[in-house]
Amino acid sequence: MRIDLHTHSADSDGTDTPAELVRKAAAEGLDVVALTDHDGVGGHAEAIEALPAGLTLVPGMELSCDLGGISLHMLAYLFDPEEPELTRERDAVRNDRVRRARLMTERLIELGVPITWQRVQEIAGEGAIARPHVASAMIEAGVVDSVQDAFTDEWIGSGGRAYVEKHELDPFDAIRLIKGAGGVTVFAHPLAVKRGVCLPESAVAELAAAGLDGIEVDHMDHDEETRARLRGTAADLGLLATGSSDYHGARKTCRLGEFTTAPEVYEQIVDRATGATPVKG
Fold this sequence. Notes:
alpha/beta; globular; 10 helices; 8-stranded mixed beta sheet
């Protein structure tokens, strides 16, 4: 089985519609794909409606969190999407993205970057507006060559000249809320050092003690040495070790199924979940 447990559609900051994403996943030979858009579940219905025969969809999302000023992302799988407390918190995070993106755009304009808020909104379309949409406007304007080039101290990277913080959840609260909704939690790309400061292993151990189910080991932002280190951490802490592409369509260079999760790990995720079940095409 080929299992990719981290992808994004145009409902957040990807470029494929949810329907396009599941069709591409099937064409790439995947057996299981998780749709994990940022801080929302709006793409699930379309993905399910378009699900090709033979492909299984894992409904999920990627929650924005912060611990002591360090930003991190928590993948959530197979939770009840209508659980009231989790819904309220994810909506608060998602809605604050608009304020943040607008302020970052205004700061960039003050720095002489020739972009407009209207264009950033057009790029985002119906999706949850986010930094990659601002970065795409910067690429169009010829200021940077890639999204990664925009995510630096020079521009909109953490602590950068035009960076603006957003409302984020405490990860311990995120774990509590997701598990309270019957879901399974996986710490996304925990050592992606190019994205900014990462949590120390001591904090990961505390998250594990609080109920974290797994960590994303095989990811494009982890080199081989980092993956080996994380695999050891997962074994030491009794955590599941997942792998996935973090696919964003044309917005990133990674392809669907570039990294995958072992079938036995996927089975444990499904077994632990009580809020929802995978959808088979």
